[in-house]
Amino acid sequence: MITSNQNAKIKLVRQLQESSRAREQEKAFVIEGVRLAEEALASRWPVDFVLYTEELSERGQAVLEAFIQAGAPAEETTPSVLRSASNTQTPQGLLAVLQQATLPIPNTLNFLILLDGLRDPGNLGTILRCASAAGVQAVGITPGSVDAFSPKVLRAGMGAHFHLPVLELDWEGIAQLVRQHHLKVFLAAAGQGKPCFEQDLAQPLALIIGGEAAGASQEAYRLAQTPLHIPMPGQAESLNAASAAAVLIFEVVRQRLT
């Protein structure tokens, strides 16, 4: 049993929780709680190790046993030690360090979301969850965005990371991906172009959503072929990135289902 906050595994967990540089160097990230652990198990995501406490619920015990049966190293800690490494206010007694991995892109890519300079982890996680629900095939994240595997993004994503290719790409890599799959590039821009409901979104496409503060970058405007906007007859000037993304993503779904 781990009883010290200075244990090497506990120190590693804290580093991974706090630092995107540590996550990049270690090629690993941390998930907490039963729900995310279940999603990781279902996707057979590679696991470095699991930590748990005696406070684990019956559902959590079942997840822990599944991890152990799958060959994942598991070690009990005291509740206080696990709390010291946790990034949540109410830890559920289960934490896992997972290996960084990228799911494969479909051979026929026709629904790509590009997130340009998103800084809010809640927005990014919410968009990933929405994208996963809508059948988006991949999400590209540009330089300057929040780390997609930070704790808050993972919690807001609710397991989307385990089902959706999340790609951290520079603009050259994005342009190559777009050309390779012959995607038309749309850019969400308030008041610009035609309303989204009048655009042909049933065709193979990439949709760029700009950041919360600065909006889309110059690189995004250079890559985009067609601007579009969400009609807003009310008093608000704009929607936040997650709300705008949800409207546009499901407009693509609506057009493709009709």
Quick synopsis:
The chain is of the alpha/beta class and about 260 residues long. The chain has helices at about 10-20, 20-25, 35-40, 60-70, 80-85, 120-135, 150-155, 170-180, 220-225, 240-255, and strands at about 30, 45-50, 75, 95-100, 110-115, 140, 165-170, 185-190, 195, 205-210, 225-230. The model has no long low-confidence stretch (mean pLDDT about 95).
Radius of gyration: 20 Å
Count of alpha/pi helices: 10
Number of beta strands? 11
Uncertain runs are none
Which structural class is indicated by helix and strand composition?
A: alpha/beta
**Helix and strand run:** HHEHEHEHEEHEHEHEEEHEH
Taking the sheet with the most strands, its summary is: 7 strands, parallel
Overall pLDDT level: 95
Please tell me what the overall shape is: elongated
Helix proportion of residues, in percent? 25-40%
Instruction: Give the DSSP E fraction (strand runs of 2 or more residues).
Output: 15-25%
Give the N-terminus to C-terminus distance in angstroms.
57 Å
- Sequence of strands across the biggest β-sheet: 7-6-5-10-8-11-9
What does this protein look like?
The chain is an alpha/beta fold. It has helices at 8-18, 20-26, 34-42, 58-69, 79-85, 121-134, 151-157, 171-180, 218-223, 241-257; strands spanning 28-32, 47-52, 74-76, 94-99, 111-116, 138-141, 166-168, 184-188, 194-195, 205-210, 226-229. It contains ten helices and eleven strands. The strands form two sheets. The chain has a seven-stranded parallel β-sheet with strand order 7-6-5-10-8-11-9. α1 (8-18) packs parallel to α5 (79-85). It starts with 7 loop residues before the first helix and ends with a helix. The model has no long low-confidence stretch (mean pLDDT 95).
